Please model this.
Amino acid sequence: MQALQRKLWRDLRSIWSQALTIALVVASGVAGFISTWSAYDALAWSRDRYYSEARFADVFASVQRAPLSLQDRLSALPGVAQVQTTVAQTVQIILPGVAEPMRGRLIGLDAKRPQKLNEVFLRSGRMVQPRASGPMEVLVSEAFASARELTPGARLQALMNGKRQDLVVVGIALSPEYIFAGMGGSPDVRGFGIFWMDHDALAAAYDMGSAFNQVAVRLAPGAHENAVIDALNRTLAPWGGIHAHGREDHLSHRMLDSEIREQQVLGTVLPSIFLLVAAFLLQMVLSRHIAIQREQVAALKALGYGNRTIGLHYLQLVLLIVALGLLLGVALGSWLGEWFTALYTSVFRFPQLLHRIRPELLLTALGVTVLTAMMATVQAIYSTVKLAPAEAMRPPAPGHYRPSVAERWGLQAWLAPNARMVLRQMERSPWRALLTIAGLSASMAIVVSGSFWGDSIDLMLKTQFEQVLRGDVTVALIEPGPANASTDLMRLPHVTAVEASRSVGVKLVSGHRQWRGNLQGRPAQGQLQRIVDTVQTVHEAPAHGLLLTDRLAKKLKLRPGDEVRVELQEGSRDVWTLPVAGTVSEMMGMNAYIERHTLNRWLREGDVANQFVLSVERGHETELLQTLAQQPRIAGSFSKAVMLLNVQGITARNLLIFSAVLTAFASVIAMGVVYNQTRIALAERAWELASLRVLGFTQGEVSALLLGEWAVEMLVAMPLGWLAGYYLSDSIVRLIQTDEFFFAVRIAPRTYAFATLCVVLAGLFSAWIVNRRIRQLDLVSVLKVRE
Model:
């Protein structure tokens, strides 16, 4: 066995560069698997632990104003285990020295009634105490406090019920309700914060001393969520209840759950592709390596070594390469996993976001990688070691030499001698040529799938902030009011146009399927806020029926022409049956649209609106937002420029970082495919190339013969790689598609060019190495004939 061990290390040294490239491909797959699944585990484990410790509620509801005595009725509803009520208001926040507008969510904490649900976690400082005199004490959400550099003792103001109220920060806190904090699904750590204050002080400011407007419910074991939600809606209806919803529709939980599911998909699909490419390379390299050593295998058998011993010898070679890849992959994956987890702290806030690599994750990576490598190479090993010694000693049969197809078609006059030799060689070894083309196409497709995210994000941002939302400021009213408020808004300084819309909470029911959300009443031909699909087509809000996002229609199994039951979740609680007028493929959200006047007619409210989009003179948005913040009827005003900055600064940044890492992995794979294919071609044709040198061909001409074959294969692989890259990107997008976002697959020419450049550079690097190898060919030893 000592002799085989020495041979093993000699073999490994002889193919060290090929072994290293394969190990790097394995490392890319393992690192991708470890990093994405460890980040997934960190998010899922931190979420589940925090939800459990803080007793995160299962169902949530808002009302305009309900008496505290109603809480006993809510607690008695079937399926309800616990009920918690409080007072909450959204207000303008004013920080000394900060001109830009900020919004805050004030939530009451009652020291006399400890929290049953959604328990606040105190990161630093102390809890609020009832105010005797002076400013009100508040806890501030950690994300907002970090962005605005607020610490215990900091002072600020809030516009509460039309009056400025001094606040003093006494602590930094977290809540399971606001792991993700933002308005409209956009993370906004600088412009939106959560503030907890004494319940009685907040209730007194809004004349709600014996009332509440927020409800949180924990379900009893075995309870049906939809039944509890329906019971809550019926009970809260007389007090202006806005449709209750479960965790699935809770903004913070929905955004966190979407990110966790994306990590699951990416941690499964992409590493699988990497490992398949590594398996392809292992099979290709090992098959050629064993074929070259046919004589050595015969000699080993003649000396008494059995098939099993020889097979294990070559299997050890494979396992050494895989072991190196595993070590590199685990180290890199651990580092990347910690990095990805740290990136999440800019979006999601937990008391403890712990990155860890569980033993079962390592065992899975080890098992899948080793199993893939063995399955790829066992056939190559078996087909050689089973040969009888005499057969193994026999030289391989010469190839079948004949003119190429192009020559038989009469095109030889158009082909130089070198070109004809290249085409003949490719036709003589069609499987090798096809595998090379497939490898080049696959590597190019992987680079495309790793780079297209920037194009898709750019398309999404341009669509949402240039085509859909063409106004500059969005204003939401606390309660619906006359649409002629547009006239008052037009009188504000620097406002150039106003567009009104109306939204109302509804439940859409189709058979046993249902969806709770807002039905949006828009102008038929809106100009400041339009309905635009993924191919930039503008759609009108229908006057007869509903226009549904295609994902919503698919969820409800509806098609244009079908009827859907519309249950109003506020006000009169009417029930309508409306046809589906059409569907639209949008990038953000699941939405239902109808023409505003038609919606108002169904609601029997007259000409009413609760949202306005304003166009503002350039440079005057901040001034206008500060003016709007003084209006008591306005629940919130949002700047498009600030929302765009938030998305670019957090969401887009994280996606682009991930894209850069994936592109680096894909480039490694491209290098592995091209380099190994070129090295194998050199090993197979060494005798032929040396013969040409002896016959008078120059080194450049000999290199051109070998690299010309690669160039032809590259030209064929390019369009195939582009096509495969598109479909691979499309598959990934469909797998990670959520209710909130749909990334349309847009691949710019520069992305295809970048992918091509990566593979070409890998080929040029391989060509440089091959040229060195050709210069170093020992013509005497290469030309020795096997007897």
Notes: The chain has a mean pLDDT of 82. The two ends are 28 Å apart (CA to CA).
